[in-house]
Amino acid sequence: MFIGEERKGTKVILSPEGRFDTLSAPELERKVWRLDGDIKEVVLNFSMVTYISSSGLRVLLQIQKIMKERQGKMFIKNINQSLKSIFEMTGLVGLLMQEEKLVLIRKEKTKTKVFLSLAGNMDDETAPSLEKELYQEGNEVTVLYLDCSQVTGISSRGSEALLRIQKAMTKKNGKLVLQHIGEPVQAMIETAGLTGVLIQEENILTQKDSTGDEVLSFIGRLDTETIPILQQEIRQLGPATPKLTLDFSRLTYLSKEGFRIFLQLQAEIQQKGIDLEIKL
User: Fold this and answer.
1) What tens digit of pLDDT does each residue of 2-14 get?
2) Nearest-angstrom CA–CA distance, 64 and 81
3) Which residues have CB under 8 Å from 137's CB, separation 6+?
4) Smallest Cα–Cα separation from 148: which of 190, 186, 191, 179?
5) Of 5, 34, 57, 150, which is least packed with CB atoms within 10 Å of its CB?
6) CATH code of the domain made up of 3-96
């Protein structure tokens, strides 16, 4: 079994892939045993686990015991519905399926823009820490992007915190942009009557890389409504632009019409003699 590992301070994220059974589960346990003593939090990312046996469940209990003995914690996240059913049938939901608190998993910053990627639950306990993190960015930041693709929930206090952050950004002529909101979180925002207030999507980010080349990062949907933005940006490029990178890594949807027009734009770029690179 392949087990991905990512360490962040005193936390380690372990991502096993495939079947979690008699043959493979002990490997994860051995990996936890070998962790440094300063590791106090083990996050098990089960997004790539397809099956778990009774032996696998026993190993999870053993890992939890190991972490308790070290005065640490174990979290399991990204469990699919079939695995969740197994936990429910064995009565281990309350014991094993703990939800990881809201954590900052990625941070990018330019002079005036900050991009934060969040994971976990934005509730009464975690919302204040998010506010504190964002208020430390300084007055020069005018656009704040929150990638909510891995946010599992937002409580009423979490929504209130977002409104306060948005208000603070508005005071300095800036804005808060929420991106990649999942259906559960969107439903919570709609219930709170905040649709249109918090849910925003900015489509084009124009920036230059370290060599001075132009980079267009497209975020969200590329369809008949948003493609004109990309058209406008590309048609403004002059012959002084030697290279253009189109970053589509944060694209969430591409319509047939959007793809057709994009092919036309690609031909226009080549006619201008601009070296084109596409990042997916």
Assistant:
1) 898 988 888 899 9
2) 22
3) 109, 114, 144
4) 179
5) 34
6) 3.30.750.24
The two tokens of residue 263 are 């092919």
Name residues whose C-beta falls within 8 Å of residue 115's C-beta, 6 or more positions apart in sequence.
Answer: 106, 107, 108, 109, 145, 147
Which CATH topology does 204-279 take? Transcription Regulator spoIIAA (3.30.750)
Q: What is the pTM of this model?
A: 0.43
Which pLDDT tens digit goes with each residue over 129-174? 778 777 777 778 888 888 787 777 787 888 888 888 888 888 888 8
CB neighbour burial string for 45-75, b if at least 16 within 10 angstroms, e if fewer: bbeebeebbeebbebbebbbebbeeeebebb
* Burial per residue of 153-174, b for 16 or more beta-carbon CB atoms within 10 angstroms, e otherwise: ebbeebbbbbeebbeebeeeeb
Class of domain 103-191: alpha beta
How far apart are the two ends of the chain, measured CA to CA in Å? 28
Q: What is the CA radius of gyration of the chain?
A: 22
Question: Domain map of the chain by residue range?
Answer: 3-96, 103-191, 204-279
